[in-house]
């Protein structure tokens, strides 16, 4: 047998990866410090192998008992030895024991390297206002649920308070890269936040839970698991629901939310599994658009909406009513040496929204801001009503088999989405009546898109070298169509459509050094079709509009995992050929060509078991996102992120103290002297503890008492930008929500 050091000498990829990581890590640290001095002076949708999730709870429990205190069992985030790009997996254990019961996926993933999230009303109590990965903003990365990509029709963005709740999420994988050829989605180059649903339990039970905490936040719910029903062919059913509400951290920014979810797994014979999933969500929320620096100074960092009915910021004029549903039917089967996987799905989003015409107080009452229509009363409050309704239908198919020295994967994604949206001025004082002097729509349109993404890839395995080399191709065909009698911005009719196509190559290499250690390298191209706003012109076919966003992504890294240690590190370089920038004014987002940009950085994360139930965790990233023309940093892209934590898991107690830091963010704002005013770095500390009583009474088990404290030291500084006001284009900001305490109790019958 060769000694380990002799084996490692045969691994050129490993030597290259480690040399690059060491050199670039040191260089990145030096460059970051130098840049700081200069500035101060101035999911997956992976369609891989099919497997049943109906594993034995007894086996799972035994494995968890044996590994409970290990680093992999307690790591808040960790990569995989099979990884071919940087990724961080967040387990159900972390979600249950550390995230607030009201948390959305955006709050949960905030712990991951290179991720920043701004949730100004408290965890899960408002849509995330700034969820970014490596500086890529919402709409520039992919979000999936059980492999299904979803997003808004116009710009592929997401609404974190709609669709899925904390209670139905089994795990989340944050892929920081475009994935291989199988990674379907709208905007994979910025990464993928891949949520997986919980598995139905093999044991029957009814779990009841309730939570209460700061700002009048309350949540109650239950979940029923049928267990394995032998008389029904070993089928399993899970049904759950929650009802929650909160006054919120921001003034007059309340939320009410109801959610139901259902999952059925039914084996057919030994080789086929049918899964049916459904989710229904109803939401009512009073929405703030941010506050000016003057408003924060006058009313405090928690200023959101007003209680004055003569103000355009009155909470009764600023609210959303949103209903969503999400369903799929999945059939996975092994036949004729092939593994087939087909998922037919649909989802819908219905949004009826109201807001004061200028909630930040720079426009007078009595006149509408969009059309200038005069209201019946000189002091009548002008407002806006909007509708944004869409439904998607899609199918995801894959076929996989071993062929020669590797595995062949074929498949594709087909999706069609319809969208209706309109916007019109109303008189808030007269119960949202149309202005009699000009009772017309500001805009109204119907649009559709059709996306087709077939793929093929081959995983060539060289076990004698520990190598898996996977080249692949994915073809993107994206078509948009719009029909409107009154187009947004122009106000003129338009009936137009256009298609964009692109072939996206990728190649990944994973080198397995031993059972605990691997390295990887990746090249892949990314692509994002233009936003719907390219059609908001009189003649889209001749107007100079943003081109599709295209990237070349280069990444390499290493992963080490044992019972004592989880560790991974990576370097990335992304050549952005056409970055589309955006800014928000009065709640409306505008896009423009930003030219080329380079994204690059160093990322690392790790957990070490200290013994006696203790684990220590840390991550660190140094990130750069700069325009190629030398005009500076991409806005709202943090220059670094970091996290550190101490976790305890032994006996009946699980506890943690975790600190997350986000570095300075360039934002394009200047002071009176023209000097740039970036948002300063900030750090927040969260505490959590859960105590489990195995048998509180003869008829109950696994009774849990939990406590979460977010923002322990009550830091309420400015943490993000919210765009600009309607009238004077005054900058708007978000602050960190103050300290929040919430307690939870649950038990299973």
Which value, in Å, is the CA radius of gyration?
26 Å
CATH architecture label name: Beta Barrel
Per DSSP, what share of the residues sits in E-state strands of 2 or more residues? over 45%
CATH-defined superfamily: TonB-dependent receptor, beta-barrel domain
Our count of helices gives 7
Which class of secondary structure composition applies to the elements? mainly beta
The biggest beta sheet reads: 22 strands, antiparallel, barrel
Ends apart, CA distance between termini: 55 Å
CATH topology: Maltoporin, Chain A
Question: What would the principal axes of the Cα set say about the shape?
Answer: globular
Count of extended strands? 33
**Percent helix range:** under 10%
How many structural domains are formed by the residues?
1
CATH class: Mainly Beta
- Uncertain residue segments: 1-10, 28-58
What is the residue-averaged pLDDT? 89
Characteristics of this structure?
749 residues, mainly beta, Maltoporin, Chain A, globular, disordered N terminus, receptor
Textual characterization of the structure:
The structure is a single chain. By secondary structure, this protein is mainly beta. It has one domain (about 5-749): Beta Barrel (Maltoporin, Chain A), CATH 2.40.170. About 10% of the residues lie in helices and about 50% in strands. The strands form 5 sheets. It has a 22-stranded antiparallel barrel. It is globular and about 80 Å long. It starts with a helix and ends with a strand. InterPro entries: Beta-barrel_TonB, Beta-barrel_TonB_sf, Plug_dom, Plug_dom_sf, TonB-dep_rcpt-like. Keywords: Cell outer membrane, Ion transport, Iron, Iron transport, Membrane, Receptor, Signal, TonB box, Transmembrane, Transmembrane beta strand, Transport. This is TonB-dependent receptor.
